[in-house]
Amino acid sequence: MIPIGFKNRENVGLRILALGAHCDDIEIGCGGTLLKLIEAGSVEEIKWVVFASNELRKKEALLSAESFIKYVDRKEIVVLDYSYAFLEKHKFEIKSTFESFKTFEPEIIFTHYRDDRHQDHRLLSDLAWNTFRNHLIFEYEIPKYDGDLGQPNFYVDLTENLAEKKIDFIIESFVSQRDKHWFDRELFNSLMRIRAMESANAESFSEAFYVRKMVY
To answer: Which of 67, 70, 106, 111 is in the most buried spot, having the most CB atoms within 10 Å?
Structure first.
């Protein structure tokens, strides 16, 4: 698989842009995939950007991101302080932020699923596609009350070790979320088990994505 823009950069690692509306989105949506790519030595540089946070959650987000991308030498972790559920109010400012990402020249972008029912998630997905016209974009999924999980068309198989490491990092980092009824190991495991069943993954754990366009 050679993403557009990567064709003239052979034998080097990927530049990855990971986008999350909220502090645990990237980890839940594509944390295992990032760990797999990093473990394989496939990542040259990563920019990890979270848009909504507060003082407490920002500390947790920084701790979590550093755990996931610890072994990437070239990295930037950005946690902005927009208000949860009100990203649309700051759409023009956020669009300017997206434009600044162009200088990073990512080969792969991870962002939210376009049909996600959370308005913050949809905004980031729309802006990613609006900003990056010739890039490989993986839209990840976040389980939630709204019940908006769909039928993904791209699967990444994970070993049990990677799946457990992903969940460990999430549970250990986001202490403020532990009292929420949905925030537990069983839920994170269950979605990866379902996606592994769908992709016939003998390892029993997978993350799933929506890919609108891919050029090889």
So the answer is: 111
Which DSSP helix (H) or strand (E) runs through 30?
helix 25-39
For residues 214 and 6, what is the distance between their CA atoms, to the nearest angstrom? 12
pTM of the model: 0.94
Residue-by-residue DSSP string for 183-197: -SHHHHHHHHHHHHH
Give dist(CA 105, CA 83) in Å, integer.
28
In the predicted model, what is the mean pLDDT of the chain?
A: 94
The beta-carbon contacts of 196-204 under 8 Å, at least 24 apart in sequence, are: 196/157, 196/158, 198/155, 199/155, 199/157, 201/155, 201/157, 201/158, 203/157, 203/158, 203/159, 203/160, 204/160
Rg of the chain taking only CA atoms, in angstroms: 16
Provide the sign of the torsion angle of the four alpha carbons 158, 161, 165, 171, taken in this order.
Answer: positive
Tokens of 64: 């979590």
Q: How far apart are the first and last CA of the chain?
A: 6
Q: Do the Cβ atoms of 15 and 105 come closer than 8 Å?
A: yes
Alpha helices in 114-184, H assignment, sequence order: 119-131, 160-173
Residue 6 in this model has a pLDDT that exceeds 50: no
pLDDT for position 215: 83
Instruction: Give the angle subtended at the CA of 194 by the CAs of 189 and 198, to the nearest 5°.
Output: 145
Q: Are 22 and 64 in contact (CB under 8 A)?
A: no
Q: Are 36 and 162 in contact (CB under 8 A)?
A: yes
